[in-house]
Amino acid sequence: MTAAASPTAKRFTVVTIHPEMIESPFAAGVVGRAATAGLISLSAVNPRDFTDDKHRRVDDIPYGGGPGMVMKYQPLAATMRHLQAADAASSPPARRILLSPSGTPFSQARARALTQHDHLILVCGRYEGIDQRFIDNFIDEELSLGDYVLSGGELAAMVVIDAVARLLPGVLGDDASSDDESFSAGLLEYPQYTRPPLIDDLPVPEVLQSGHHGQVSAWRHEQAMRRTATRRPELWRAFREPAAAVKKWPPGLRLAERLYLCVATPADLALGQEIGASFGLPASHVLLKADLAADLARLTSLHGDEPAVHELTHHDAAALAELGRQAFLRPSQAVVLTLPAASFATLAVLALGHLLGPPNP
User: Fold this and answer.
1) How does pLDDT run across 271-295, given as a tens digit for each residue?
2) Rounded CA gap, 186 and 249, in Å?
3) Which strand ranges, in their side-by-side order, compose the sheet holding 40-45?
4) Where do runs of H (alpha helix) occur along the chain?
5) CB contact at 8 A, 169 and 111
6) What is the Cα–Cα distance from 151 to 75, expressed in whole angstroms?
7) pLDDT over 70 percentage in the chain
8) How far apart are CA 299 and CA 354, in angstroms?
9) CB of 112 closer than 8 Å to CB of 185
10) Is-contact 52 76, C-beta < 8 A?
11) CB atoms closer than 10 angstroms to residue 327
12) Angle at 360 between CA 267 and CA 281, to 5 degrees
């Protein structure tokens, strides 16, 4: 499948009973051009060529009964031994991956990690599965594309090849291209626009036409964060913006400017202010429960929307993560955390640390 691959080319070998499925999709596009240029090497090996019977069977009935057939150990093991023998002089050895719905979810981070391996062997299952003894003896890891079932592993293997190959130096032409793509920084990609600047009464955002690279970069980052917070809450909860970068956010986005603590008694006020100050909150952001009704009206006038009030009775990381996501998406809304009289200091520190990051040194 590859002509004149260089000695340093990343190698992808697909073990499949349908090698023709692998060949045609990579005849063009980014991966096809990379193969033609010798940056990567693509090959497919058919386990039927390593069977020990005249019918070239690669499957048999499952032990214990049940529907369908199971891929046999012998043809797959013989295939892998053949590949390992051909690879004997290589160091380190190839990374052997089974594409399986039972595998670890494939991600951009995993794609980037796989670029560190010179040779990837991607094994494609078929039928009801593969004899577990082969997996135990020959597979380094299992990868899944998601919680659904395909007819075989070939499509998944093609996804892995494409995702890994485009991260290799020289494949995209501009190596910075992969850095701006979805998931590369833990975020979805920002919206893209091209000419003309106005079509069907739909304009391109003015900032993108300004020529001000700093403003364009800031806009794109904000849009990526908003898109991620809206569409992929689980990605947003895992995303952590460095404190120095948060300081550069537009004022409305910075939660510290509209986050308030509400303590139960006047005796708690001084300690609440001390805790708040350690996270960058001014003293005016620590409220008293007795004055809360009046303060809520004031905060509505100050920030624009009616404040969101959350009563903290215990530390709940998942609830705080969701609170932070909702707060990011509502920049004109103050957030008030009401604290109990008992153990309020511990709860305040945990909550502020989760929402704002570590306290000031």
Assistant:
1) 999 999 999 999 999 999 999 999 9
2) 17
3) 40-45, 10-15, 119-124, 95-105, 141-144
4) 19-23, 29-36, 73-86, 108-114, 132-138, 154-165, 213-231, 233-238, 243-246, 269-278, 292-303, 317-329, 344-356
5) no
6) 20
7) 96
8) 23
9) no
10) no
11) 20
12) 50
What amino acid is encoded at 326 in this protein?
A: Q
Orientation of helix 29-36 relative to helix 154-165, angle to 10°: 70
Using CA atoms, how far residue 247 sits from 24, 87, 335, 336, in Å, is 49, 51, 19, 21
DSSP string across 127-192: TT-B-HHHHHHH-SEEEESSSS--SSSHHHHHHHHHHHHTTSTTTSSSTTGGGGSTTTTSSPPPP-
CA distance 3 to 354: 53
CA 327 to chain centre: 22
For the cut 60, the answer to whether the pLDDT of residue 3 exceeds it is: no
The set of residues, in sequence order, having a beta carbon less than 8 Å from that of 214 and lying 6+ positions away, is none
Please enumerate in sequence order all residues whose Cβ is within 8 A of that of 176, keeping only pairs 6 or more positions apart, or say none: none
3-state secondary structure of 220: helix
Tokens 């062997």 appear where? 121
pLDDT of residue 68: 93
